[in-house]
Amino acid sequence: MPTFSAPDGTELAYHLVGDGEPLLVLPGGPMRASAYLGDLGGLSRHRGLVLLDLRGTGDSAVPADPATYRCDRQVEDVEAFRVHLGLERADILAHSAAGDLALLHAARHPARINSLTLVTGRGRALGVDFTVEHRREAAALRADEPWFEDAHRSFEAVWAGTATDADWDAVDPFFYGRWDAAARAHAATNVAQTNEEAAEIYASAGAFDPPVARAALATLDARVLLLAGEWDSGPLPRVAAEIAELIPGAELVVQPGAGHFPWLDDPLAFSSTVAAFLKG
Predict the structure, then answer these.
(1) Which of 62, 159, 231, 271 has the most beta carbons within 10 angstroms of its beta carbon?
(2) How many domains does the chain have?
(3) Do the beta carbons of residue 118 and residue 253 sit within 8 Å?
(4) CATH at residue 22
(5) 90-95 and 113-119: which strand pairing?
(6) pTM for this entry
(7) Strand (E) positions, the chain?
(8) Is 215 helix (H, G, I), strand (E, B) or coil?
(9) pLDDT tens, 80-114?
(10) Taking the CB of residue 28, how many other CB atoms lie within 10 A of it?
(11) Quick check: is 173 in a domain?
């Protein structure tokens, strides 16, 4: 298992999947180990995936200072990752909450970005986020699903602050385009793969300065793709479009029938879309 040292000395691990030109992959969660990404629906047939375990997750070491879990303080981990791999300019793919990390890295090191792919990525770094109302809007799209009634009851308990552990488990179907055996198995690994302490700190006060990030990215000379899921609530496709509007030349693709993990919902559509974008 390859490793490298972060600027503060924390040993960070990464995993290699597939062959070919490297694609640096940042996992979401926030602070979930990279194992849940798998081979990104076969994207590893097109590029060599280099999946980083963020500090305190997966095979990476726990930092001496928990405050370094904050998103902006992990930017230099990503930059050290690029340097370690010997890349002058990197192609970076970020999922979900790692969208914020990738955006902050691009804002701080714009000359080191060749392309940026945000998969159902968050945009708090730019002042754009989803809301409870967005969650409800997306949930309503699934009203015809056989699991909807029970899941929606638990969904409302979550937002009322009365959810039990069973309620949290019951809302999992809303995150997937298909609630099949593969989705169930994927959802079951979440808790074991996530550093809950780190997740609480990741977006804490001071992590984001949207005006500064927006100004930096306004002149970004890199190709950018935002891939949203038709049924995802975080972000909704129209919210992903708001993020795209803040990055000159950014492309938006909405994958039909997809939730928050589009490579599971339609692996071929996902890998083909991303591979075509990366080829330019």
Answers:
(1) 231
(2) 1
(3) no
(4) 3.40.50.1820
(5) parallel
(6) 0.97
(7) 3-5, 11-17, 22-26, 48-52, 90-95, 113-119, 223-229, 251-255
(8) helix
(9) 999 999 999 999 999 999 999 999 999 999 999 99
(10) 27
(11) no
